[in-house]
Amino acid sequence: MPPPAPQAEDLQVELRQVCLTRGATVVLDGVSLSVRRGELVALLGASGSGKTSLLKLINRMLEPTAGAVAVEGRPTTEWDPIRLRRRIGYVIQDAGLFPHYTVARNIGLLLELEGRPAAQRRARVDRLLELVGLAPATYADRFPAELSGGERQRVGVARALALDPGLLLLDEPFSALDPVVRARLQQEFAALARELGKTALLVTHDLQEALRIGTRICLLANGKLVADAAPDDFLRLDAPEARAYARAAGLGAAPQG
Amino acid sequence: MMWREFLIENQAALLVAWREQVWLVLAATGLALAVGLPLGIAAARLPKLRGAVFMVVNMVQTVPSLALFGLLLPLPWLGGIGARTAIVALTLYALLPITRNVATGVLGVEPSVREAAEALGLTNWQRLRHVELPLAANVILAGVRTAVTLAVGTATIAAAIGAGGLGAFIFRGLRQNDNRLLLAGGILTASLALLADAVFAGLERQPPPAPRSMPRRLAAFVGLALIFLPVVWSYRVAPPVVDRRQRPVVVGSKDFTESVILAEILAQRLEEQGVVVERRFELGGNLAHESLLSGAIDVYPEYTGTAWTAILGERPLTDPREVYARAQRAYAERFGLAIGPPLGFRNDFAILVRRQTVAERRLRTISDAARAPLRWRAGFGQDFMARADGYAGFCAAYGFRFESPREMDLSLTYRALAAGELDIIAGNATDGLIAALDLVALEDDLQYFPPYQAVYVARQAALVAAPPLAEAIRSLDNAIDTDAMRRMNAAADGARRAPREIAADFLAAQPWEASGAP
Q: Which pLDDT does position A256 carry in this prediction?
């Protein structure tokens, strides 16, 4: 059951019949997807299903072969890629922190590049560290090599929030963490995103994660969007790919018949 | 103590050579960095360009240094003799390690870090400045370190094209059979390489949070001081002479003792007349002639036989007067060069053996040697092997058959012959080493070797522009006989006296000094 047609000003991201081919390989095949302000969309799919490519189309790290992508109601082709990316927070799997910069500089680099004064930067970095649950006094001057995996990922999230973007893209941000840390971070992130009123697209291959964080779950298979539902409805979907996920996670209804 | 005198005597020259070497390396590495950094970044960013870039820089690397110097020499803007050509060549060599390491370093940055930098919205330049270059810094530094070590070594070859540096001592030591010169040049070159290496070892950084290593930083500082203190000192001992009031007459010489002495005699003769002289001595191979043609030098000592066969490419002739007259005409017509009057002696090829061999085998002439039932171990200079009046014709004329003669540096053949490693070599008749090493020249009984009369060759334009040059050349007409030349060569190669002093002594003994003219 598709959600009701949204108002244009509510639309944070819109993909219309997007195709992406790389050489002879079809990565995305006619994907349409609208994300409204405040939604936390979990993009679920196996590796190679095209979910990471879909994220990169949104911040112009990739360009679609056909179809159109719009952010905040404007086609991405009209956005300057640098300006666009600075309005969108991005978190990747192993955080991708700059190993030669301290935690504070990692988080504050974009503020620095935007020309914010040092005092303001310092205050903002401290605030962001508190938001992701790291004590500024302890962590600000550490280097990434001195952090645990979970701490690195928290810094990654703080860095993505530095310029206070309305939209966050997250590419399997928690998948490399151990289960206990992962569960805690998932819950904290969902709470934080809701508290700050962020819109987020989160790529994952883990249904549990999608259910914990997502307000909506979209399932990609072989470059096609095969399911799009609220978490509660997802487990009851008929699409065979969705049922395979539910079964694998031990959450699906037993096959009928 | 021999060494002490040597060092006191050569202190200024060694300091200047050190300074020249340091500047050559510094200039070349700096230029290579200026070119290699953007080139390496471009190669890293554009995979299509990468192959082409590396093919070119790799290819440059495979050209032997002396060949590269020779190839650059006739080029109008980059070439010429002196430091400029050397810097261009050294830069080309330094380009490979620097470009390669820049590209490798940039490509070696962890993909997740690069992706994050792009996704966060860093511009191309900001990604380089904040992420790729800092993270590639150690790899790039290692490339520069390799380039510098390479340049220190290769810069010694630059002495062959008149760029100076420590190589001049090494070349001179080989030629004059003087181990002190050789060792001084070699040890200082090695020291410079080691010091430079220590500096770079100290610059390298372990990734944070590791602290910098204090002993290494200290070593780097000391290394830096030891490299540059002699440079500073050298400016006190021997400040570079810059006299722009008058266009200097540039006197060149080939890279052997006799040529240097003859050039020095002419240079001092000019200076006596108040002419400003620039010395571009010890030019290897055919560089002296090439330099004269390109106008980089104005005059240098040459031999008529060389001019006739090696440069003009004519068949060898045996009559000295015919060779002189025909070479002079051909030079004027073909090159616009003037061959001055004969200096009074000939430096023909001489087939040399040890005195002991002569005694044992009762040899007098080359024909005797050719007939002797002996397995001659022969070694010849590159020049002799290649020339029309050299090896091939010589073997044919005398019926010599050598089993694989060694082709090696001429001055080394003397040492090898004296040491008993070789039995027969082709040297030069006036060479001071013949007497110094107790060698004997076999008589050219078939008169195979053409005459090599010593002369000065000058650019006609230079003779017009500087009348004292023509005057000085004329004044040396028939002024040096074979004995005098051999004595001067022996003074340099045997008694290790400086060509400058030898030339001064010679000029002081000339009659025109006594009469006070002109």
A: 47
